Amino acid sequence: MAYTNSYKPPDAPALLPGYYGPEPYDINWIFPLHEATLESERVKLTPFIPSEHAKEYAEQATAHPELHRWFPFDLPNLDVILTTVELRVRRDPTWILFAIIDKARGGALAGVIGLVYASPTNLSVEIAWVLVFPKFQRTYVTTNAVGIILQYCLELPTASPRPGLGLRRAQWMTHSLNKPSHDAAKRMGLKDEGILRWMFVLPEGKEGHGIPIREGDPQQSHPGRHSLVLSFCADDWENGGREHVQKLIDRK
Fold first, then answer.
1. In this predicted model, what pLDDT tens digit does every residue of 147-190 receive, in sequence order?
2. Distance CA 19, CA 110 (A)
3. Which SUPFAM superfamilies does this one have (predicted)?
4. Domain extents for the chain?
5. In the CATH hierarchy, which fold is given to the domain comprising 35-250?
6. How many Cβ atoms sit within 10 Å of the Cβ of residue 34?
């Protein structure tokens, strides 16, 4: 049997210097945005709008390059952040990035947190891109931001006055060596599920899992990453998870 293969790899995405997205900004998100649920007494999550949030994010990333130490991609400057938010996030309706706003400190931008690979079919999503700026670390910000995201994902759409998406699964994946991320997820009530080995081929210079790459590998100079997998599911939420998360959010 004769056959052919006409596949051609796509061109690498071009950098979009100075591109802040369409006006008005279209978040292009597959689910409803329940604003009342995306807020606690001290922290608010609002869609990341590059014209409002990207410059501060870039300044923090430049001053603190360790913020992206465990990420499977690099965000070294403003133009790369703008390009990544536009091409990877906004144009994919299964992704959304939120700005973390510290209401208790005058509405300061405290970091970012995202939802990726959202599936209305399987009622699932992954919590990712969790990044809190150094000034706001080891405060209530991380707990509130993750708690708000969990409420938004797992609460039922019929809940009042703070409806959620009614998802069955909220997943968290992190570099196998990223103990602070693992600890944060466990503290919030997510459960360990195991390790996905060799999940990412990382950019050159990134810290891999330390296992040597075999000779002849097509990307010999790029380290590999194992990912720890945790989840918070609907049955966890209904069996004490809701109360656990709210208690952490309310803790002074």
1. 999 999 999 999 999 999 999 999 999 999 999 999 999 999 99
2. 23
3. Acyl-CoA N-acyltransferases (Nat)
4. 35-250
5. Aminopeptidase (3.40.630)
6. 18
